[in-house]
User: Fold this.
Amino acid sequence: MKILGIDVGGTGIKGAIVDPDKGKLLSDRYRIPTPKPATPSLTIETIGAVIKKFDWRGAVGCGFPAAVKREIVKTASNIDESWIGVNASAQIEKMTGCPTHLVNDVDAAGYAEAEFGAGKNRRGTIFMAAFGTGIGTALFHNQQLVPNTELGHLPMHGMAAEDYAANSIRKKLDLSWEEWGGRVNEYLQLIERLFWPDVFIIGGGVSKKFSKFKPYLHLDTDIFPAKSRNHAGIIGAALAASANHMPQEKSAE
Assistant:
């Protein structure tokens, strides 16, 4: 069975055909830069171009950088505000004819990690934090998702946590790994005090450099980098669509 997974990010919109039963990509990943400004019309047009690249006619799972409820975009902290209230799935389906399921992007990545990655076979509470333009979060208890947690917006030092400890802040302020690792540690210690997780999973592109800031993390919780890396959002979006009982494209095998 096959589903097209799409991951909408702040800099790129990426897609690949996925086997949701195995958590594997069945095609090369295809990426198009995210349009500027990332308005609904321009972004949906770009998503349509990704779908067209694969000559796709089946179900689509789409990870999106916002809280999503019943396919409707509810927040716009890192995207254009005109997205709020838009039924993105309906718009994508109207353009492409492909049944589409929308899910928060870090929830999608969390699905991939909980099912196939660093959280596989782990019970208890799993907390995933993706450090990128902002801080996206996903929370699972006994492998069940609590959707749309958006805990990158917790207050720290008089600002949102993501304005203090996101990877974009490390780059903007040219922080050393020790300085930035200290900020990440503060954030994760706050999460420990609030949720008492059993496992932390670090996602986002910076997860590839986990060894550079791991020495500065002093936590009581086990912590691991995401195993799926940049594929997590694509795989998880396909998993979410599969779990939503959408029609899947059958394998030719």
